[in-house]
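Thread: quick sanity check before group meeting

JM: Hey all, I'm pulling together slides for Thursday and realized we never actually wrote out the predicted structure for the chain we discussed last week. Dropping the sequence here so it's in one place. If anyone has concerns about the input, flag it before I start.
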Amino acid sequence: MPIQKAVILSAGKGSRLLPLTADRPKCLIDLSGRSLLDWQLDVLQAGGISDIVIVTGFRDHLVDERAARRSGVRTLFNPFYHVADNLGTCWMMRGEMTEDFIIINGDTIVSSEIVKRLLAGARRPITVTIDEKDDYDSDDMKVERHGDCLVAIGKTLTPEQTDAESIGMLAFQGEGTQMFSDQIDAMMRTSAGTKNWYLKAIDALAPTGKVGTVSIKGLEWQEVDFPPDLEAATAMTTKWASQRG
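JM (edit): ok, ran it. Output follows.
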């Protein structure tokens, strides 16, 4: 059965985009007349995802109100969003890891073609969606591959290791859901648990050979983390809106 569930990680405050995020979470900033979250929900539902869970934190009631307007969308509050990184957010939603699912960062906008590419290309228990470019900066979540198998993932990979970057969207299916849940739980039981990103759990699972990659090179997506990202996302979504007519 195709993957029909998605989890959107939207618990953070988005302080790098202040003052836009002073009184609303990053996922509700406006992009070409629609919120970032609405753009995400549109492409996920168009791709056949019928059950969407938004993990909330900062100003959670605003996201609750937005989710209530959409069929098949619900929220899960993370009360630790202000003291734990997104590994903690994933730990909070382990109860949702009972079936195949997609996870996407709350600040990543992707085209509908990317959702289709991931769903069609996810062949291993865990699949990381990647893009390829000529140069990678210090903030990129860099990826090392052997064929389509992920060898390592992290911001500190050397240029010699790096041949792609994660766009912040993964698929988990079959045993991959339990592998991810168990790894998160183990890492959260360490002293550094609350300081970790969930992709560190993926890096830890890479030696199993069960983490694959799907390239979306040439397709449109945008992370919205800094003001220049906001400008790029606005231009991209303005184009999408005009194509809709």
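AS: nice. The chain is about 30% helix and 25% strand. The CA atoms of residues 12 and 228 lie 19 Å apart.
JM: adding both to the slides.
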